[in-house]
């Protein structure tokens, strides 16, 4: 069973600004596109810290973001809400991304991910 954190935004700004920000985040954190079992998502990490998954979908003016961690036993568990973050190097960057999406959506300046 898939257990993923889900974040939903109603996009009121230019969708391309949000798309650019997400793509910069994925590149900066070395996420790779994975296509498995007819699903496309992004994956990053290593054997030391574990692996994380990220997926986003635009549906008209709505943006859905899914984030999760992979269990060493092959399952998934929520990324932010319940995952132990002390060892997770992606947690801070993920939280920053979510805040930056909110900022752009509320009319903030263009934000570049670095």
What this model shows, in words?
Strand 3 (39-46) and strand 4 form a beta hairpin. This protein starts with a strand and ends in a 9-residue tail after the last helix. The longest helix has 15 residues, at 91-105. It is 25% helix and 36% strand. The chain contains two helices and six strands; from the N terminus they run E-H-E-E-E-E-E-H. Helix 1 (15-28) runs antiparallel to helix 2. It has helices spanning 15-28, 91-105, and strands spanning 5-10, 32-36, 39-46, 50-59, 62-70, 76-78. Strands 1, 2, 3, 4, 5 and 6 form a six-stranded antiparallel β-sheet that branches. The chain has 114 residues and is an alpha+beta fold. The model has no long low-confidence stretch (mean pLDDT 83).
Can you give me a brief rundown of this structure?
By secondary structure, this protein is α+β, with helices and mostly antiparallel strands.
Secondary-structure map:
Blueprint: E1 5-10, H1 15-28, E2 32-36, E3 39-46, E4 50-59, E5 62-70, E6 76-78, H2 91-105
Antiparallel strand pairs: 1-5, 2-3, 3-4, 4-5, 5-6
Helix pairs in contact: 1-2
The total beta strand count reads 6
Structural class: alpha+beta
What is the element string, with H for helices and E for strands? EHEEEEEH
Indicate the percent of residues in helices.
25-40%
Q: DSSP strand (E) fraction?
A: 35-45%
Overall pLDDT metric: 83
Low-confidence runs of at least 5 consecutive residues: none
Q: What's the assembly state of these chains?
A: single chain
The description of the largest β-sheet is:
6 strands, antiparallel
Radius of gyration: 14 Å
How far the N terminus sits from the C terminus, by CA atoms, comes to: 34 Å
Shape: globular
